[in-house]
Design a protein that fits this description.
- It is a single chain.
- The protein has 364 residues and is α+β, with helices and mostly antiparallel strands.
- The chain is built from 4 helices and 12 strands, in the order H-H-H-E-E-E-E-E-E-E-E-E-E-E-E-H.
- Strand 1 and strand 2 form a beta hairpin.
- The protein is elongated and about 160 Å long.
Length: 364
């Protein structure tokens, strides 16, 4: 088409119509008048997304396998191709094992909460209708999927269904800024509303501004009327930060979600709600502290003539000998006796010294 005045006017008109449709869609919300066209587009492009998803892995492996092929490096290219095939085979086994682990974990979560789920696989990432955190899964209306159904995996809450096509559905993730879910805190039952913040922790506004919250507290979904869009008891996340209480009507806490939204693969759509609220039964078990080893020593009664266990005999101090108390008393008594004998000897010597003087003065 040549660059003419008519072509420019047509381009401006198409842009204006596009903006008008976007505005009507946003303001219409869940009752958007273009919802029928969106579902028709999902019906048309859903099978294409499935085909592209199935073809991506073989194409990627083929490109890596022939990466450095050339006439002068035929042998090197052949070795690289063989190496790439081996890596692809090993990678496929690892991926299958990882999927089995995810499926097993999801089934355990569904069993703990008594949720009836329909398994699905993420086949596309990104927004189908706007710039938001969404994924496309490979189940749709033909599989019994309806709008506003809860989506979870083995870790916890993933999001909710927003658009349903015949064979595919769009899921709004829980970390999207337009996503809000009612929450209930474990044990204390404090209620609040969690809102997505992209790649940052969820913002939860507790209805009780004086609620006692600490880091590590855990939250689950409170549930919706008729269990849509949320069933109760699905794990949401764990508190990582608490804003100081400012005396307001609400209190803000920040929650790290259990689900990794950047590595989703196997998910489950809750098609049947539990008969009763599972409360905290679906939350993962907290790690148990390491057991403390306690050693108890029992003293054995000593035999006759044997020194009791644990007691040590008196030992003389270094450089000075110690004697028993009886020997010391005998020594003191002997010293006293010796002193008395010395005193008696002195008394006997004193009259003998005085006699010669008396004899010299006497007259015969």
């Amino acid at each position: 088409m040549r660059d003419t005045r008519e072509s420019r006017l047509l381009l401006v008109l198409l842009v204006a119509v596009a903006f008008a449709l976007i505005t009507v869609d946003i303001r219409g919300g869940q009752e958007s008048p273009v919802d029928g066209a969106r579902q028709a587009a999902a019906a048309v492009f859903g099978p294409v997304e499935n085909g592209v998803a199935a073809a991506v892995d073989p194409i990627g492996n083929a490109i890596g396998a022939v990466r450095d092929s050339g006439e002068r490096h035929t042998r090197i290219a052949a070795l690289e191709k063989e190496n790439a095939e081996l890596k692809a085979e090993l990678g496929s086994d690892d991926r299958n094992r990882n999927r089995l682990r995810e499926l097993d974990s999801m089934l355990k979560t569904a069993g703990a909460g008594q949720y009836g789920i329909k398994g699905a696989q993420v086949i596309a990432i990104g927004a189908a209708q706007g710039f938001s955190w969404t994924v496309t899964i490979d189940v749709g209306a033909r599989d019994g999927i309806q709008r506003d159904m809860t989506v979870l995996n083995g870790s916890g809450l993933v999001g909710r269904i927003t658009t349903v096509g015949p064979s595919t559905s769009t899921v709004l993730l829980a970390n999207d800024p337009d996503f809000t879910v009612g929450t209930r805190m474990e044990k204390t039952d404090e209620l609040g509303f969690a809102t997505g913040q992209g790649d940052r922790p969820l913002l939860v506004q507790l209805l009780n501004g004086k609620a006692k919250v600490k880091t590590g507290d855990r939250l689950v979904t409170f549930g919706s009327r008729a269990d849509k869009p949320f069933v109760p008891g699905v794990p949401v996340g764990e508190v990582v930060r608490v804003d100081p209480a400012g005396g307001g009507l609400t209190r803000n806490v920040y929650v790290r979600p259990y689900v990794g939204f950047t590595k989703l693969d196997i998910v489950g759509v809750v098609v049947q709600a539990p008969r009763s609220d599972p409360r905290d039964a679906v939350l993962p078990q907290k790690p148990k502290p390491a057991p403390t080893v306690t050693v108890t020593v029992t003293a054995k009664p000593p035999a006759e003539g044997e020194q009791p266990q644990g007691e040590k005999a008196d030992q003389p101090l270094a450089g000075r000998a110690e004697k028993p108390a009886g020997d010391q008393a005998a020594q003191d008594q002997a010293a006293q006796d010796q002193a008395a004998q010395d005193q008696a000897a002195q008394d006997q010597q004193q009259p003998q010294n005085e006699n010669p003087n008396d004899q010299g003065d006497a007259t015969p």
